[in-house]
Amino acid sequence: MSQKALSGIRVLDLSRILAGPSCGQLLGDFGADVIKVERPGLGDDSRRLGGARVKDLAGADLELAPMFMCSNRNKRSITIDLAKPEGQALVRKLAAWADVLIENYKAGDLKRYQLDYESLKQVNPKLVYCSLTGFGQTGPYAPKPGYDSIFQAMCGLMSITGHADGKPGGGSMRVGVPITDFIGGLYAYGAIMTALHHRDRVSGKGQHIDLALLDCAISAMTLASGNYLCNGVVQERWGNESATSVPSQTFRCADGEIQLSAPNDDVFNRMCDGLGRPDIHADERFCNNFLRTKNRGALVPLLAELFAALPRQKALQLMEEATVPCAPIYAMDEVFADPQVQHRGNMIELPHSAAGSVRIGTNPIHMSDTPITSYTPPPRLGEHTVDVLKGILGLDDAAVQSLRDNKVV
What we know:
Low-confidence stretches: none
Number of domains: 2
Distance between the termini: 36 Å
CATH topology of the largest domain: Rossmann fold
Shape: elongated
Helix content: 25-40%
Oligomer: single chain
CATH architecture of the largest domain: 3-Layer(aba) Sandwich
Strand content: 5-15%
Order of helices and strands: EHEHEHEHEHHEHHEEHHHHHEHHEEHH
Strand order of the largest sheet: 3-2-1-4-5-6
CATH superfamily of the largest domain: Crotonobetainyl-coa:carnitine coa-transferase, domain 1
């Protein structure tokens, strides 16, 4: 079996909720030893967020909720009270062992405990220390807390998402998942890997990474920000339609919805032929994309009527035969039933000591020489505390029991 790509990399994950944990999860997927540090008794807030919790074999709730389950596979969980000097000492010892530390405390919070970068680089000069906060370590908003919806609002994403003003349901809309958290987690993963490369191939030293979720979200605005910066154009909301090509949008069929894109004349002509209506592409109002965009008010209702008369599967079949890009709009149960999704292994069921088994999502990266060949389920709170204290820090039974008695772990 191939060794995992990040075997030997040691990560101390002090982050909570989604952004930092999703970064730690990616590192763990590729073989890093990720130690997740949580509050005794409570753990990461995400253990109680996102919907119904996983149940044990007796039907009782475990401290494993969907938000925690989606961002904490391939980790070990330990509990340490950072407010206690003995807990701070344990983290400093683990920082001396680690290659990477991830944290998302408010700017300046960890400095109170001498667990900030400047303090820990004295313990471990090779440490790559990643701070992933809402607004970064500098600037007027640095002390402020924030959540995904705040950054979706501030980066402009909500302003371009949703139906246009004047249409039913028009107005700014949040994306249905905490997307800025995952964008931040991806940037953190890339930044950490870059810093490790620089340490190991260039400088021999670690460094501090200052990542702000707002910065990351703005960077992901791509065409919307590019249009403004290049041309001064502020993008409007178009809902499921495209501003520049028609038709490229959602259509409702007799028993479900589809998303279709016919961005050029050849595809549009094939779409019309597939629907048995070549007269539509022969209509001078619709003979090229410029005219179709200009006359979308006449074209779209005509197409909507045709698709509404078809079962979804029949519409998909006709468009596939005509080689027109088209897809069903799936609910999540349909997503994981799709044969392509099943073939690519986007979900795995794992044995679990308390729940019997759990289903989790998988990493989408497929590497030829260092594939991800195994997963471990998101850990129970403090599941590995004793193993880590003994195996990494070398504490004996008496020392571990003393930490427990004093509620440090």
